[in-house]
Amino acid sequence: MTTHATHQLQREKLDQIPGILREVGIDCWLVWVRETIQTPDPVLPIVLGADLVWPSALLFTASGERTAIVGSFDVDVVPADVYDRVTPYTEGIGDVLRGELDRIAPGTIGINESRDDVAADGLTSGMKALLLEILEPTPYAKRLVSAEGLISRLRGRKSPFEQARIRDAVRITEEIFDELDGFLAVGQTEIEIRDFVHRRMAELGVGFAWQASSNPAVDAGPNKAFGHGAPSDNRTKAGHLLHFDFGVQSGGYSSDIQRMYFFGSPDEVPAEVQRAFETVRHAIQRAAEFLRPGVRGLEVDAVARGHVIDCGYPEFAHALGHQVGRFAHDGGTLLGPPWERYGDSPEGIVEAGNVFTLELHVPTEQYGQVSLEEDVLVTETGCEFLSHPQQTLRCIDR
Amino acid sequence: MTTHATHQLQREKLDQIPGILREVGIDCWLVWVRETIQTPDPVLPIVLGADLVWPSALLFTASGERTAIVGSFDVDVVPADVYDRVTPYTEGIGDVLRGELDRIAPGTIGINESRDDVAADGLTSGMKALLLEILEPTPYAKRLVSAEGLISRLRGRKSPFEQARIRDAVRITEEIFDELDGFLAVGQTEIEIRDFVHRRMAELGVGFAWQASSNPAVDAGPNKAFGHGAPSDNRTKAGHLLHFDFGVQSGGYSSDIQRMYFFGSPDEVPAEVQRAFETVRHAIQRAAEFLRPGVRGLEVDAVARGHVIDCGYPEFAHALGHQVGRFAHDGGTLLGPPWERYGDSPEGIVEAGNVFTLELHVPTEQYGQVSLEEDVLVTETGCEFLSHPQQTLRCIDR
Lengths: 398, 398
Hints:
2 copies of one chain form a homodimer. The first copy, chain A, is an alpha/beta fold. Chain A has 2 domains: 3-155, Creatine Amidinohydrolase, Chain A, domain 1, CATH 3.40.350; 157-396, Alpha-Beta Complex (Creatine Amidinohydrolase). Chain A is 33% helix and 20% strand.
């Protein structure tokens, strides 16, 4: 991404902050980080677009001020056209930070700590201890609150710049699936297929939305559990299914799409596969028809989950959808069931500008799982598919 | 890195853990992570070599047991030839984790929390809260201690695999500097020079030891403060200095080297530049002669700092040296002064197998800063230069 584009992103996102701070009732947001190459805070690419080495404080107020306190060697990475004030220090940040807080005098200070939303949990445990030590002689130590609500809204409400980048990532992902239509044949290994995709990604200059070792996931035939495992020497075979879970990162933003192929002609698709495919496709369609601003994540999940159960299938052991943004799993409100491992993220409210996956699978007796995943953008009144929903099995007859 | 190589690394490192646990008096080490693509724990590449999505617990005991408790979709990424036991879960990790701890019954449990060592501070603040909630009904909530001492030793004592990877990274970095001898000329911009280095890195298939935007740092002429800023349109000029700070990542391990060039013949080097260069070179040499297992980081820093002051220069505003490993800044003991911003890391004890940078600069009146950086491996009796220490200014006379 060019420096110019980075700054446009930050300007769009930083412009959102004061309004959201007022919505959530926080006076000041403190992004408190160090050595962000080792321990990155997920919000940093959005608010800064660079790494910081020494302990650093980025302060955003409800009145719109943007201040960066950074080590003297890090001054150059803070964009002067985005931040109002850049204050360097050499020996220690404590005095400067306390001074700046005294000037702002916030009643509440949001910090990046969240039990349930990983994207809002960039503050490490040792850095929190260091912050408490620095603030100990001040009233501010007792004014720290979780910035979870702020970050969830800030990440979730995709700005025009962000929406355009995600559309690009989805388009490139679909282009590569279209190329796979011409490449795939019976007798290929999952690894050969994976290598084709990686080669095309390199040629197109895009990165990985998640780790390369399982991106794309390539699952040939009935005997492989879908998951985050690596492609194997399993071979495609006539009469078998082939499953992909694939996402690229382009311009810093991600896609996440699953597609199903069948080796044979359309009239050879077994009935139990066809029924499974229609069940998954319709469950996604029904969830998309329900999805709109104001509903809770778990309500959307329940629509698809209910459809699958109504069709006589066991329910899928994961959430229907997660947000997509810089990461394939971008945190915030989850379209998921109220299970312990999801914390309270399924309780979140869907907002316009959110980008979600809609994904699920059902089992078949003889052909393994049938699984699809689409990407959708929540609009003011409903949602728009960013991917072109898969309507039929992609049949490869060679 | 191949899967095979990754597992060899993990086997070497995991073999070190029981002994270090006994040294530091911790019964069990708990690596407690989730969505590690968004919030990576710096120890994960060493102990697992893959990313995990759902809340996951990796448990290592002083008796040598290695257990992974991970979400069902993550089972495949845990190497079965490295871990004794992989326990999957679907709805929530709480019961499984409590059960496993009851079986181990540790008196102390190390967690990745550190005020001063970023590499030992991978536990996020929200994940700590979640852990305390899960352990609340057990005696283990009160048995948590910082694993800082364990992680510092584990990362710091480079295994044979790790030493070989760092030597590779240093060799490749020096090869690119050698190529620069043939490329550099008067009238080039910093950006042109940076682009040459990036092209060669891509051709050689190596990554960046820190962010690409300031790697290499390229500083032409007297008017640029060295730091983490990006190369600019400044041009090289006859009679001027050119400075590089450059590190690659190869096979997952890093180098970090600074070099100084002069545009002109060796007999045209100004006396004040020559004196500055000799001061920096000798300060590094004296620190290397002093560096050995058992000394404290701040003692090593004091040797170089004292030399610079004795030569009549102002002291440098940073630490003499940091550890190098997976990251250019790899945490642990620092060869640094006892300043607030370094916490207690300069108090750490140097150990055999540590890899450090030795780096510093002094100012000149008319030519800007003169700065060098070498990489050294601590041996049983002293240290070995991994880089070939720069002995003279690299003169470019065209």
